[in-house]
Amino acid sequence: MRGRLTSSHPVPHAESIFRDLLGHSPTPSHDEFLEAVRRFRTIDFDTSGAPDSDGFLFEYGAFRSLSDPGFHLSVVRQFEIATESGDHDYYVQVSGGYLYAIEPDLEALKPVVSWWFTDDPTPFDEWFASVVNDPVWAAVRGRPLVRFVVDQEDV
Q: Which pTM does this prediction carry?
């Protein structure tokens, strides 16, 4: 694929690679965050190569029932980890996201869950343009941030 780096990295290193792309700011601007996500896509990781073994999730919404209630806005990269025989074992998700206090106008936004995988007929750049142009970024601009989080977990 044009623009992709040629070497692949072990999936356990994905979080530290994403953090490096974000730079040294503990709270990147939305533009810095989105640029890091775009660049993160260009990095290959050791996956099975199955069509759904490497994908992205863009999601947001107001959640009161979570252990961490608030308006969550995040991008996740998901990797499938397979057994030696090639069967699905588990997923690793590297996520970066913003948490805002729930306010009535944010709570009124319909939650969004948008997946993209390497076998998707929509090219990544087109899918990502829809992420960048989503009205949620304008809705949260200038609001006080509760926190920005990057993490990696097995699911």
A: 0.91
